[in-house]
Amino acid sequence: MPGELSDVPESWPVVAIEDLYRTDWVIALRLDELHAPGDDQAFPRLVLEHPGAVIVLAVDDQRRAYCLWQYRHPAQQRFVELPAGLLDADGESPEATARRELREEAGLAAEEWTSLGTTWSSPGISSEVMHFFLARGLSDVTSDFERTHEEADMSGDWVPLDDLRVAVLDGRVGDGPLVQAVLLAEAKGLV
Length: 191
Description:
The chain is an alpha+beta fold. It is built from 3 helices and 10 strands. β1 and β2 form a beta hairpin.
């Protein structure tokens, strides 16, 4: 094993960058030409720029998780998901974004916030980093967030955490962030 069992920040020299798709929307696609250390031969890599995201596993005193059902066009499925959202507000920390998304998508506020961890969704092509939180001490709040498009058709409800775990393990729910959040919380003994 080459060194400590840990991811290590590293950056290889980039000699050219070409924007392939860039608008005022949240993501962009670019083509980087880079060199491996000690190698003069450049090679291309596509990079999907993404601001990052938060995912909230909100668990109440009855061991129920708040879940959403939302249509996702790229997969052409309605997924069982958790409240989540993009880190698209300037200067907003991941926890602040998680608090906002829980309020907007579930109409909930939480007194206790625990970081479950951070993962990269697909580091071979995307810069997306996902921050996972466990929210407890929940209360209903009013949200003035106006839902549009797929979010306008989104529904939500409480699901027994044990049922959600079984659905994760037997493959009935396959949203990656939901799966990771449930398994992280369980592995850490937090639920």
